[in-house]
Specification:
388 residues, alpha+beta, 4-stranded antiparallel β-sheet, 4 helices, rod-shaped
Length: 388
């Protein structure tokens, strides 16, 4: 039995149907391939993260709490929250009305004491001028008297020596001719000496007496000159000590002591006022203020917290059943809003705690930066922590 051939016009139709069926099959396979690829990737990721625990921690930073050093009221805020500050940069300025009144009163007292001191010094200057003039006049008179006594001492001594030498050297008893008023005028000894003449015994006796009188007169003048020198020394000592004596008599020392004490008290009050300007203890970021302008504050009351952005860390609570997987120095993967970073476990709290009345216990873990720098995000931001 033989088959009959197909008609010639049916052969092309059969070929077209085969091409259409092949195209439809490829289109159906594409979604299946995509699903298979995604499933493979998911399986790979699942296998890579098998046993991984994802926790949520919070970015922290080392912080310093700034306390009020004095009671008062907040007058102004010098640095806003979130602003970077340097050491000793002003943060808050406090004011105290009672302290301001005390400083004002003490300032007026200092001005009054300063005026009183100037008045005492002026009086002392006047007294100094008068007393010094009087002492200078006495010194001048005493020096003149000392010079006079010294001159008379030398004249009498010269007369004594001259008469003694003439008496010893004259074998013929020749003596100087002298008038009776010779001793009352010793300066005449310097006049031209006349020719020696021969005198009788009476004249010789008179010359010996004049010689003794001249010696006595020389000694008396010497003593009087020494007394004058002593008086001059006392006057000079008095002149040197006169300024201090007059200062004390005029009350300058007392006025200076009162002014110095008042200035010390004023300086102490100003230091208290300067201490009311609260400054930053170091570099950092200003946190949230607990007080506002015009609010009263007490001594030791916390005002603001300074966060040290140079020393950030992540604080995360780990379930107590999972903490056995951690150890100090271990590295963890962190996710900062899509940016992956690495951290190293620095501290594991030795005591567990409960949160919001839950039965599960948690242990606080502190993670420090390791590797690439962490991104700049706000303190307190949530950070995803992955641990295996």
């Amino acid at each position: 039995m033989t088959s009959s051939p197909l008609p010639a016009d049916t052969a092309p139709a059969t070929s077209d149907n085969g091409s259409v069926s092949s195209g439809l099959s490829i289109m159906r396979l594409l979604p299946l391939a995509a699903v298979a690829l995604l499933s493979g990737l998911g399986a790979t990721v699942w296998m890579a993260r098998a046993g991984e625990v994802r926790l949520i921690g919070f970015l922290r930073a080392e912080q310093s709490v700034v306390y009020a050093p004095h009671y008062g009221r907040i007058e102004s805020v010098q640095a806003r929250s979130g602003e970077a500050v340097k050491p000793r940069q002003a943060l808050i300025h406090l004011t105290d009305e009672s302290l301001d009144h005390e400083i004002s009163a003490k300032s007026r007292e200092v001005a009054s004491l300063q005026a009183a001191l100037e008045q005492c010094r002026a009086k002392a200057e006047v007294q100094m001028s008068l007393q010094r003039r009087s002492v200078d006049e006495k010194l001048l008179r005493t020096r003149l008297e000392s010079a006079k006594f010294l001159r008379e001492h030398y004249a009498a001594n010269f007369e004594h020596v001259s008469l003694r030498n003439i008496a010893k050297g004259s074998s013929t008893t020749r003596w100087l001719a002298a008038t009776p008023d010779f001793l009352s005028q010793p300066e005449r000894i310097f006049d031209t000496i006349p020719e020696p003449v021969v005198t009788p015994d009476a004249m010789r006796f008179s010359a010996v007496m004049r010689q003794e009188l001249a010696r006595n007169l020389a000694e008396v003048n010497k003593v009087q000159s020494e007394l004058c020198d002593q008086h001059i020394a006392k006057l000079e000592t008095l002149r040197e000590s006169l300024p201090e004596m007059i200062r004390k008599a005029a009350g300058v020392d007392v006025a200076e002591a009162k002014l110095a004490q008042a200035n010390e008290q004023l300086e102490s009050l100003n230091q208290q006022k300067a201490a009311m300007s609260v400054a930053s203890p170091g570099h950092g970021i200003v946190g949230v203020y607990s007080k506002h302008v015009a609010d009263p504050v007490g001594v030791g009351e916390a005002l603001v917290t300074i966060h040290d952005r140079e020393r950030p860390f992540v604080e995360v609570d780990v379930p107590s059943r999972e903490v056995i997987k951690l150890q100090v120095g271990q590295t963890l993967q962190l996710d900062f809003a899509g940016e992956d970073r690495t951290g190293r476990v620095e501290f594991i709290c030795p005591q567990a705690h409960n949160r919001n009345g839950e039965t599960d216990s948690w242990i606080t873990v502190r993670v420090r930066p390791a590797g690439k720098l962490w991104p700049e995000v706000a303190i307190g931001s949530a950070v995803a922590v992955r641990m295996k």
